[in-house]
């Protein structure tokens, strides 16, 4: 028997949620593996059709779950995500342009391109693991990749795979890594930035040494 309902709760990290039946009654447990369309990520508010199967832990669970509302026809989000992807592409283009001029070493664009590729595939692997209920990549690892210059690849992967685009805490931390990386890149382009950085580190070390001597005596 086919039932209709709406997903009222969804835990994207763990890949499960609950469906509120249209006909009333108790919520029905649903796992991400039960969906017939695995290319789309479930979310609270989605209207679905489903069958029910016996479950030893929960009594019943939803199986053969299909979306009843409008399906997205593209793997890319048109809107804010689309413009962030354009911005990431322009940033990489500027970095490559600087790399082929005398402004900075060509190693820098290679680092950004390499980090972006690694980050893109890390997101793809995590998305696949989320679908299959396998071991996930830690969020702090994804943030570290972004901080090291892989954030353009992260933006492309987020929009392509519809992954990590709704969790507020993750999104906030992600944009912090983007700002820190861009700030570091801007500092690097400033005249004598390397010398200034070395001088700042030397001054900091001297201050720490003097403080330790005062504490010791």
From TrEMBL:
<feature type="transmembrane region" description="Helical">
    <location>
        <begin position="168"/>
        <end position="190"/>
    </location>
</feature>
<keyword id="KW-0812">Transmembrane</keyword>
<dbReference type="GO" id="GO:0003677">
    <property type="term" value="F:DNA binding"/>
</dbReference>
<feature type="transmembrane region" description="Helical">
    <location>
        <begin position="78"/>
        <end position="100"/>
    </location>
</feature>
<keyword id="KW-0597">Phosphoprotein</keyword>
<feature type="domain" description="CSD">
    <location>
        <begin position="2"/>
        <end position="67"/>
    </location>
</feature>
<dbReference type="InterPro" id="IPR010718">
    <property type="entry name" value="DUF1294"/>
</dbReference>
<keyword id="KW-0238">DNA-binding</keyword>
<dbReference type="InterPro" id="IPR012340">
    <property type="entry name" value="NA-bd_OB-fold"/>
</dbReference>
<dbReference type="InterPro" id="IPR052069">
    <property type="entry name" value="Ca-reg_mRNA-binding_domain"/>
</dbReference>
<protein>
    <submittedName>
        <fullName>DNA-binding protein</fullName>
    </submittedName>
</protein>
<dbReference type="Pfam" id="PF06961">
    <property type="entry name" value="DUF1294"/>
</dbReference>
<keyword id="KW-0472">Membrane</keyword>
<dbReference type="Pfam" id="PF00313">
    <property type="entry name" value="CSD"/>
</dbReference>
<dbReference type="InterPro" id="IPR011129">
    <property type="entry name" value="CSD"/>
</dbReference>
<dbReference type="InterPro" id="IPR002059">
    <property type="entry name" value="CSP_DNA-bd"/>
</dbReference>
<dbReference type="InterPro" id="IPR019844">
    <property type="entry name" value="CSD_CS"/>
</dbReference>
<keyword id="KW-1133">Transmembrane helix</keyword>
<feature type="transmembrane region" description="Helical">
    <location>
        <begin position="106"/>
        <end position="123"/>
    </location>
</feature>
């Amino acid at each position: 028997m086919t039932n209709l309902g709406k997903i009222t709760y969804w835990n994207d990290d763990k890949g499960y949620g609950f469906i509120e039946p249209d006909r009333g009654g108790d919520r029905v447990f649903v796992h991400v593996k039960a969906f017939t369309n695995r290319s789309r990520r479930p979310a609270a508010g989605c209207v679905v059709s489903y069958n029910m199967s016996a479950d030893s832990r929960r009594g019943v669970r939803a199986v053969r779950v299909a979306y009843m509302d409008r399906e997205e026809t593209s793997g890319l989000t048109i809107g804010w995500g689309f413009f962030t992807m354009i911005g990431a592409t322009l940033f990489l283009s500027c970095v490559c342009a600087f790399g082929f001029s005398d402004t900075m070493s060509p190693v820098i664009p290679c680092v950004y391109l390499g980090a972006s590729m690694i980050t893109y595939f890390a997101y793809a692997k995590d998305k696949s693991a989320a679908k299959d209920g396998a071991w996930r990549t830690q969020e702090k690892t994804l943030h570290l990749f972004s901080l090291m210059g892989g954030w353009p690849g992260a933006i492309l992967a987020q929009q392509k795979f519809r992954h990590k685009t709704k969790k507020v805490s993750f999104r906030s931390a992600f944009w912090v890594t983007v700002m820190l990386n861009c700030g570091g890149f801007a500092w690097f382009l400033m005249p004598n930035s390397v010398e200034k950085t070395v001088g700042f580190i030397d001054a900091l070390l001297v201050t720490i040494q003097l403080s330790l001597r005062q504490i010791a005596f």
